[in-house]
Amino acid sequence: MAVKLRGALLGAGNIALRGHAPQWMGDARLRDEVEMVAVADLSPPNLEAIRALCPGIRTYACAEDLMAQERLDFCDICTPPSSHLELVELAAGKGLHLFCEKPLSHTLSAALRIGQAVRRAGVIFQPCHQYHYSPQWLMVKGLLPRIGRIYLAEYRVQRLAANEGNPHWDPRWRTDPDLSGGGILVDHGAHIFYQLRSVLGEPRTVQATVRTLFHRGYEVEDTAFVTLDAIGVVAQVSLTWAARQREIYFRFVGEQGELVGTETGIRVQAAATEEFTLPGGMSANSSHSEWYAPLMLEFTERVRRGDRSQGPLDEALYVTRVISRAYESGRQGCTLPLENGDGVEGPAATAGTVADEAGVEPEARIEVLSSVASERRSARERAFRAGAYVLLIGTAVWTFRDVRWSALTSTLGAAAPLWIAFAAGMNLLALVFQAARWLALVRPLSRAATLPESFKAMMVGYTVSMIVPARGGELARAHFLGRRTGLSRTTVLGSIVLDHLVNATGLLAGLAVLPFFVGIPDWMRSGGWIALALVLLGITAVAALRPIQRDGGPAPSEALPARRIGVLLTKLQHGLTGARQPKALGVSFAASLVSWVLEVPVVVWALWAVGLHLPIPAAFLILASVNLALMFPVAPPANLGTVELGATLALLQFGVPKEQALAFALTYHLLQVVPIAALGMFFAGKDGLGTTFRRAPA
Fold first, then answer.
1. In which band, very low, low, confident or very high, does the pLDDT at 283 lie, cut at 50, 70 and 90?
2. Which of 315, 333, 502, 524 has the highest local Cβ count within 10 Å?
């Protein structure tokens, strides 16, 4: 017997667990041909599930590590379309053959790059076009010659909603265009287009209407009508996730009769009328695992023969081109030629949108309205921020106006390095609990989130905030974790907003008990009330936030900018899921309290480092003062000035000289900034921060 081919699964989500793996492991013919030796997936629960299905398989958290350590013949890509390009280029670059889920990618440009990578590497590529091997479709193809030359075809697919994705990753990825590339046109249309091509050939033109009719919470279309026009034959394809019952209907009309198919049977009216029953129907489930086995056998036979024919790859590229042209046709409202469509991207600004009645193009309306809104918002923000900076600078100048700089440098020079090291180490431990605080709010969104990844994301975000103002590092934090979990950046930002509120709640809890141990200055009482008002405002906003439209009912037509805002709000609200889960909030708040407690010895040891020995309640007061200053709506890079101002003002309450107070503030600030910057740059460099920005979905 020939040596078995060694394969690896890239992705262990629903399609791998229910479609691919059961055939690789369960089909006797495939077991003789193939050994699946490894699997890579972001989610630990998914890896556990695949281990139960494939005993002995080795598991990895990322595909790069898997391919670096395993000896393979091929990879089976079972991930969403947006990840295909990266995985194909990685595997093809190592000379590995590819079995890849449909569609080829989420944009035509990415699909074309996949084609180039496959051809350049000379590897065998097999798209998962398993509907070719559906028993029902094989029956249809066998019966079609009875009706003669076909000149009209109809194909209708009705579903109630999009299938949910894996619960341990992102259940809504099929309705996120950044991950899927589109809605039902991508998810089910891909199969119909290659089936029709196999019996009708390629069309000359494509015309489509693409809308979101029912599921207004979707970011993609739930309905598409596509007309494919070839020489002498027209095919009409109707696809919807907005039906009231699952149904499939198809009809082929030829010069000598017609063939009509439904969910359960086929009727041929030609020289005679015949009816055929379809056992089990065609919509019993969405995985159709048994249809994969013959396709997988075809792939393994091609690998054995060294068959590098481009037919399967060309078919996959054709499907992506048809989908891309259909979206473009829907956007322009006209019929388009199938050819010359290589520069067209996916479903940008098509689902559920229409042009203004006055004839203004949607893109123009977005640009004009967004520009006006941005200018007004920017003017207000600039004025507000300028006023805040003036206030901060004025307060700092007044506070430090009579500092003796020689005494300051002398105090800094005499600082004890050992206590600084202890404080820096304890601060890192506190940061671990801060990452745990955030993780408790992210885990309801994705089981792929882990404490190490949350910690790394926080370090990267804090590091970027040392360079850019206004806490811009939170965007990097969202990018980093989005890359590791598959969540959109906006969704992760929602969890960050909630994380800040939990953190502020912990601070306010400490402020509430602080007066029992130490006197509180009047300026700090005022700051505490302002902080409380801001937190209550944030909590109110989180509690009130709802999607613009809810799934489950139709909604009136929306202008495109409003819909775009609705999409962002839907993602943001998804990021706030933890706010509706008491357990997640409880764990997060507990982690927050622990982190605040750990911050106290950081302050104490930093005080000792510059020769200050104050009572423990003073450390609490300093910690509260610094963090109240950080809530000030300025947020300069690295919080420069705000930390020093808060710490110095607190120490002045205890009669500490300004020079020694400022020496403590600088020491306290640096022992936090330096380790965080070192770790952040290390993690960003290892992961590739620029790559992170490109890959993370919005």
1. low
2. 502
In DSSP terms, 553 is beta-bridged to 215
Q: How many whole angstroms separate alpha carbon 461 and alpha carbon 481?
A: 10
Query: Is residue 347 scored above 50 in pLDDT?
Result: no
- For residue 378, the model assigns a pLDDT of 53
Q: What separation in angstroms does the CA of 325 have from each of 56, 141, 188, 340?
A: 45, 27, 16, 9
Burial bucket for residue 2 (CB in 10 Å: 0-12, 13-18, 19+): exposed
477-494 burial string, b = 16+ CB within 10 Å, else e?
A: bbbbbbbbbbbbbbbbbb
The C-alpha atoms of residue 332 and residue 350 are separated, in whole angstroms, by 9
* CB neighbour burial string for 380-398, b if at least 16 within 10 angstroms, e if fewer: eeeeeeeeeeeebeebeee
CA–CA distance, 395 with 390 (Å, rounded to integer)? 9
> Is residue 632 packed enough to be buried (19+ CB in 10 Å), middle (13-18) or exposed (0-12)?
buried
CA 249 to chain centre: 35
pLDDT in tens, 117-174: 999 999 999 999 999 999 899 999 999 999 999 999 999 999 999 998 888 887 888 9
Query: Using the 8-state DSSP alphabet, how is residue 554 labeled?
Result: -
Amino acid at 265: G
Residues sharing a CB contact under 8 Å with residue 622, sequence separation 6 or more, in sequence order = 603, 607, 646, 647, 650, 651
Alpha-carbon torsion 110, 112, 115, 117, what sign? negative
Q: Cα separation of 512 and 202, whole Å?
A: 72
Residue 388 pLDDT greater than 70, yes or no = no
Question: What pLDDT, on the 0 to 100 scale, is given for residue 480?
Answer: 87
Strands, E, within 321-433: which ranges? 336-337
Identify the pLDDT of residue 75.
Answer: 98
Identify residue 679 by its one-letter amino acid code: L
The least confident of 91-100, 214-223, 405-414, 564-573 is 564-573
* Strands (E) located in 118-172: 125-127, 150-158
Buried b (16+ CB within 10 A) or exposed e, 442-462: bbbbbbbbbeebbbbbbbbbb
| Position 641 pLDDT exceeds 90 | no
- Quick one: average pLDDT of 454-483? 86
Strands (DSSP E) found in 87-232: 97-100, 125-127, 150-158, 205-211, 223-230
Which secondary-structure segment (H or E) carries 575?
helix 560-575
State residue 391's pLDDT score.
54
Among residues 252, 690, 679, 181, which one has the least CA distance to residue 462? 679
**pTM of the full structure:** 0.64
DSSP letter assigned to residue 61: S
Token pair belonging to 172: 């809504």
Nearby residues of 519 by Cβ (< 8 Å), 6 or more positions away: 653
Q: For residues 570 and 547, is the Cβ–Cβ distance under 8 A?
A: yes
Contact 612, 673 (CB under 8 A): no
CA distance 231 to 488: 43
SS3 content of the chain, % helix, strand, coil (to 5): 60, 10, 30
pLDDT tens profile 436-466: 999 999 988 877 788 999 999 999 999 998 8
**pLDDT value for 383:** 59
Cα–Cα dist 69/25, whole Å: 22
Average per-residue pLDDT in the chain? 83
Is the distance from CB of 342 to CB of 108 less than 8 angstroms?
yes
Report yes or no: 479 and 695 within 8 Å, Cβ to Cβ: no
Is the alpha carbon torsion for 336, 342, 348, 351 positive or negative? positive
pLDDT at 115 (0 to 100): 96
